[in-house]
Amino acid sequence: MENEKQRYAFISYSTINEEFTTNLVKGLKSGGYPVWFDLLDMSADSRRDDEVGKALRECSIFMIILTPESMASENVKDEIDYAIDHGKHILPVLLEACDVPLRLRHFQHVDFTTKSFDEGLESTKELLGRLVEEAPANFTASDAQIAQKAEAEHKASQAAEVLAIHEAATYRMAKAEAEKIAKQKMENQRLAKIQA
């Protein structure tokens, strides 16, 4: 079913970390978790760029294996940019200490640097399971763009409303102050006439 197909995680990694990534993917797949990994899910007669591009476009979750090598890879950087720009759920997996891009730092991640492989696998399953539940079955990039636009318009509308309220309050205060000054002036003129 097409909708179910889109509720999977695309795995982005450096080929230097192929062995770890393969073991992680096998552990996830054996647990029934939906993941797409080029070495296991790409047909031999297909064009790599076409298959990777299609899998990245259609996925709802983007899992990135973070190492110094993956952070130095232009392909991985392009995949990260695409995933974030198109509203994918992001699941960083920290395999080795590295300079994590600012755009990835606010996402909840799995830290294999402080866990055994089995502990890290369980943490990955738990977080991936939550993201699969959150990902709409019929997720598409255009859905994410529509949602982002709607949120931006809502925020702009709220800001305009707050500004209008502030301007109305400022106008009322200025009007009250002007009336107070006018009354004081009239009172001063009245007192001046009495004294004259």
Characterization of this structure:
- The chain is of the alpha/beta class.
- It has one domain (2-139): Toll/interleukin-1 receptor homology (TIR) domain (Rossmann fold), CATH 3.40.50.
- It contains eight helices and five strands.
- It has helices spanning 2-5, 18-30, 38-41, 48-58, 68-72, 74-85, 117-134, 141-195, and strands spanning 9-12, 35-36, 61-66, 89-94, 110-111.
- The radius of gyration is 29 Å and the shape is rod-shaped.
Largest sheet: 5 strands, parallel
The strand line-up of the biggest sheet is 2-1-3-4-5
Question: Roughly how many Å is the radius of gyration?
Answer: 29 Å
For the terminal residues, how far apart are their CA atoms? 96 Å
SS elements, strand count? 5
Strand content: 5-15%
Topology as a string of helices (H) and strands (E): HEHEHHEHHEEHH
Descriptors for this entry?
Rossmann fold, 196 residues, five-stranded parallel beta sheet, alpha/beta, 8 helices
Question: What does the secondary structure layout of this molecule look like, with pairings?
Answer:
Elements lengths: L1 H4 L3 E4 L5 H13 L4 E2 L1 H4 L6 H11 L2 E6 L1 H5 L1 H12 L3 E6 L15 E2 L5 H18 L6 H55 L1
Summarize the entry for a quick read:
The protein is α/β, with parallel strands linked by helices and 196 residues long. It is built from 8 helices and 5 strands, in the order H-E-H-E-H-H-E-H-H-E-E-H-H. A 5-stranded parallel beta sheet has the order 2-1-3-4-5, sandwiched between helices.
